[in-house]
């Protein structure tokens, strides 16, 4: 069975909502924090914690209003209908915040899609409302990402599954090593090329649907050998 895992920011959602959020509400400080993350000086969890701390004040109502401007990929719901008609489960994996992932999915009528993201609480401090993130899905050994996408992918899939991953950024680098079919755009393309990971480049979900349709018409779809080995390795380690 085919099983699709999909990144949110810049993939299911056309824009990187998290990046825009912090750039808008924490300004230059956020840019500096993200640059330290890109240079590998801080991990994703520290990055989110520092970004949230850098936001002076943001109430849930202000946050709601802010995310109204963001939309999903124009072909995303068509892609979801395609997957549903073929009984292909789709799960969203995000290293962003659950507050906006859930709301943007709901606004587009796809709130039934399961998603995993980091959690955010709003904490009143005098006249301000602070964002306080928490991380329910970290990995006990690897702290590269805040929400460990690899673990979701492995837990939710079985031996017979053919794993499809769709993504664009840094938090997708790890999970694509375990996926049989990789769809990449933007920065993730360069990473696949450098790491010799075979991938399908895509611009929007119309491309993903079209290519998956072609793949499904083949008599037999082979798993990616390196991905099978990588998955086996994790299970051997217990
Ligand atoms: Mg992304």
Question: What's the SSE blueprint?
Answer:
Blueprint: E1 2-7, H1 8-12, H2 17-38, H3 44-54, H4 60-67, H5 76-85, E2 90-97, H6 98-107, E3 115-125, E4 128-134, H7 149-156, E5 162-167, E6 181-184, H8 187-195, E7 200-201, H9 205-217, H10 225-236
Parallel strand pairs: 1-2, 1-5, 2-3, 5-6, 6-7
Antiparallel strand pairs: 3-4
Helix pairs in contact: 2-3, 5-9
Could you characterize the architecture of this molecule?
This protein is 45% helix and 18% strand. It is α/β, with parallel strands linked by helices and 238 residues long. The protein has one domain (2-15, 71-236): Rossmann fold. Strands 4-3-2-1-5-6-7 form a seven-stranded mixed sheet. Helix 5 (76-85) packs parallel to helix 9. The chain is globular. The chain starts with a strand and ends with a helix. The model has no long low-confidence stretch (mean pLDDT 96). The structure holds magnesium ion. Magnesium ion (MG) binds at residues 7, 9-11, 168-169.
Brief summary of the model shown:
The protein is of the alpha/beta class. It contains ten helices and seven strands. Helix content is 45%, strand content 18%.
């Amino acid at each position: 069975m085919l099983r699709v895992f999909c990144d949110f920011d810049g993939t299911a959602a056309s824009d990187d909502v998290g990046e825009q959020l912090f750039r808008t509400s924490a300004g230059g400080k956020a840019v500096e924090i993200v640059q330290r993350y890109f240079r590998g000086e801080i991990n994703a969890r520290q990055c989110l914690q520092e970004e949230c701390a850098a936001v002076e004040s943001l109430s849930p109502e202000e946050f709601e209003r802010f995310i109204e401007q963001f939309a999903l990929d124009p072909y995303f719901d068509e892609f979801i209908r395609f997957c549903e008609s073929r009984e292909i489960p789709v799960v969203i994996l995000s290293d962003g915040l659950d507050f906006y992932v859930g709301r943007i999915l709901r606004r587009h009528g796809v709130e039934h899609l399961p998603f995993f993201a980091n959690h955010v609480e709003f904490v009143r401090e005098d006249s301000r409302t602070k964002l306080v993130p928490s991380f329910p899905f970290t990995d006990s050994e690897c702290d590269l990402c805040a929400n460990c996408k690899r673990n979701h992918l492995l837990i939710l899939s079985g031996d017979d599954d053919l794993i499809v991953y769709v993504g664009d950024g840094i938090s997708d680098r790890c999970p694509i090593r375990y996926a049989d079919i990789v769809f990449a755009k933007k920065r993730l393309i360069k990473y696949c090329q450098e790491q010799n990971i075979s991938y399908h480049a895509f611009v929007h979900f119309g491309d993903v649907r079209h290519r998956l349709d072609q793949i499904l018409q083949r008599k037999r779809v082979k798993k990616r050998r390196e991905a099978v080995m990588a998955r086996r390795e994790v299970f051997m380690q217990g």
